Amino acid sequence: MWSIAIQSLLALLPNRSPMLLVDRILACEEGYRFVGINNVTINEPHFQGHFPGNPVFPGVLMIEGMAQTAGVLCLITMGSKQPSVYFLTIDKAKFRKPVVPGDTIEYHMTKMAHSGSMWWYRGVAKVRGAIVAEAEVRAMISDS
Fold it and tell me: For site-directed labelling of 41, which of 20, 94, 117, 128 has its Cα 20 to 30 A away?
């Protein structure tokens, strides 16, 4: 198993703080399944309003973290020179448990299908082995 550190993620993804939601990628099965890691800290700006006195990591940001992990999987699998990955759909999203500062989210993304520029993934977000969210996402690769 190998990993992709933050410096390489910054070269692959256009996202930057506070919207870069993956700190590291672990390759479990190259081209098929990656695990993205997000270390949740109280310093993140969304905790000012979500929710004061009871900080909970927003579910929509977990979906974005899944999409970013899937995007890296697309780019690495294609071996392309800096195409853009566009997040198109979210299906079957479920949020199971709250995520709080101090947690480490693991985004387990598995490729379901690929046809031309379209990619489909199933994602499960876990904290300490427990499923906290899940969803299916679709992405499109474009050279523009």
Answer: 94
Q: In what order do the strands lie in the sheet with 24-29?
A: 2-4, 24-29, 33-39, 104-115, 118-127, 130-142, 84-95
Which contiguous run of DSSP H or E holds residue 60? helix 59-78
The 10s digit of each residue's pLDDT in 67-99 is 999 988 888 887 766 678 889 999 999 999 999
Task: Work out the pLDDT band at 144, boundaries 50, 70, 90.
Answer: low
SS3 120: strand
Residue positions annotated with a catalytic role? 50
Q: Which pTM value belongs to this model?
A: 0.93
